[in-house]
Amino acid sequence: MARVVVGLSGGVDSSVAAWLLQQEGHEVIGLFMRNWVDETVTLHDECPWVEDSNDAMLVADHLGIPFQVVDLSEAYRKRIVDYMFAEYQVGRTPNPDVLCNREIKFDIFLDTALKLGADFVATGHYCQKSSLTQNGNTTYQLLAGADANKDQSYFLCQLNQQQLAKALFPIGHLQKPEVREIAKREGLATAEKKDSQGLCFIGKVRLPDFLQQQLTPKKGAIVEISADHAMYAGDVFNKHKDEPAAAVNPYTYSPANGNIVGEHIGAHYFTRGQRKGLKVGGKALPLFVIDTDVQSNTIYVGQGEDHPGLYSQALFVAADDVHWIREDLKLQAGQSATYQARFRYRQPLMDCTLHQFTNGLYVVFESPQKAISPGQFVAWYHGNECIGSGVIER
Questions:
Q1: Using 50, 70 and 90 to split pLDDT, how confident is the model at 51?
Q2: pLDDT (tens digit, 9 = 90+) per residue, 246-279?
Q3: Is 47 tagged catalytic?
Q4: pLDDT class of 194 with cuts at 50, 70, 90
Q5: Do 269 and 197 belong to one domain?
């Protein structure tokens, strides 16, 4: 049997993961990651890490496994928090949860576990791992979780072969209700604990409040663009089938295209597709953010979910940001392949074609997609296997 370090988060999923590994006869060690500490702001009082670490300790004690807290807050601040602020500052929408898995859980935390003599690191993610042998070499596969409603393979889309080789996902074959039932049956302290919501490090704090800690509020105009000033991305692409770039965010806006309908406190606080927080009333349909310009500090909005400005049929990933989990399937410049993709958690997989060029990768969808946001991750799949991903440039 193997020595396995489990990332005990204080939640029910990682708790059951530890129990399952123990039942399989592995030597299990529980580690809690303390990722966020900031004594200089009021956020520290809102952060639930103390409660979570206590719950993790109770589970470890119940199972009779070693337990300790590891402080990764300095690395987390540099690799995740600073990056997140920098992205919002330039008008992009980062996904810290994807980065946390790549940079913290399966990098620094993995290194910590290996120093403890671990053979594997395990987490409570709802995904599965498999492998295949090609030319005598083992290739690891990242598969969707059996519970389609909880599948978290998207959050792990930046892992590489070396990280997957050391990863275990003990609950990936289970449904969420089954996990709860195991926890109740085994008397685990986290059995009834609600799933965590929001970003993985700021706890109960609202994202706008957190961003205002470092991003200075700055008043600017909210400009409404009528549907007449934009055409559907699908129409644009149909006229340029050999030019994927033509379907990537094909709209260019300026205040001259619309009417000022309100005022905001900073374009960097908003993202495409956002509805809440605009505080502009009196419209026939709800307003949605269709674009932001942090240089001029302008937000562009349109009425209704069907506004063409919300949609584009393709996205672009710069060459340096293209990542293949399945390196054997990597596209070379000039090659194309048909897969499925998503660019947000729990989004249904959408049919698409990947076009690799020297400067990067274009993902062209079969139908226009709503609110594609630069800074987010797009992950592409073959069936239920996540085979690659990238940071959306535009």
A1: confident
A2: 677 667 788 888 999 999 999 988 999 999 989 8
A3: no
A4: confident
A5: no
Domain that holds residue 288: 216-394
Picking from 157, 184, 211, the residue at the C-terminal end of a domain is 211
Name the active-site residue from 100, 127, 352, 386: 100
- Using the 3D structure, point to which of 185, 211, 237 is the last residue of a domain: 211
Residues 262 and 180 in one domain: no
**Residue 217 pLDDT more than 60?**
yes
User: 52-66, 204-218, 232-246, 296-310: which range is least confident on average?
Assistant: 232-246
- Judge if 118 and 258 occupy the same domain: no
Three-state SS across the chain? Answer: CCEEEEECCCCHHHHHHHHHHHHCCCEEEEEEEECCCCCCCCHHHHCCHHHHHHHHHHHHHHHCCCEEEEECHHHHHHHHHHHHHHHHHCCCCCCHHHHHHHHHHHHHHHHHHHHCCCCEEECCCCEEEEEEEECCEEEEEEEECCCCCCCCHHHHCCCCHHHHHCEECCCCCCCHHHHHHHHHHCCCCCCCCCCCCCCCCCCCCCHHHHHCCCCCCCCEEEEECCHHHCCCHHHHHHCCCCCHHHHECCCCCCHHHCEEEEEECCHHHCCCCCCCCCCCCCCCCCEEEEEEECCCCEEEEEECCCCHHHEEEEEEEEHHHEEECCHHHCCCCCCEEEEEEECCCCCCCEEEEEEEECCEEEEEEEEEEECCCCCCEEEEEECCEEEEEEECCC
387 and 274 fall within a common domain: yes
Do 75 and 190 fall within a single domain? yes
Q: What value does the mean pLDDT of the chain take?
A: 88
Catalytic residue flag (residue 157):
no
How many structural domains does the chain have?
A: 2
pLDDT tens, position by position, 316-338: 999 999 999 999 999 999 999 99
Q: Mark whether 237 and 361 lie in a shared domain.
A: yes
Of 196, 158, 150, the residue nearest 345 (C-alpha): 150
Model pLDDT, residue 333: 94
Catalytic residue among 47, 127, 157, 200: 200
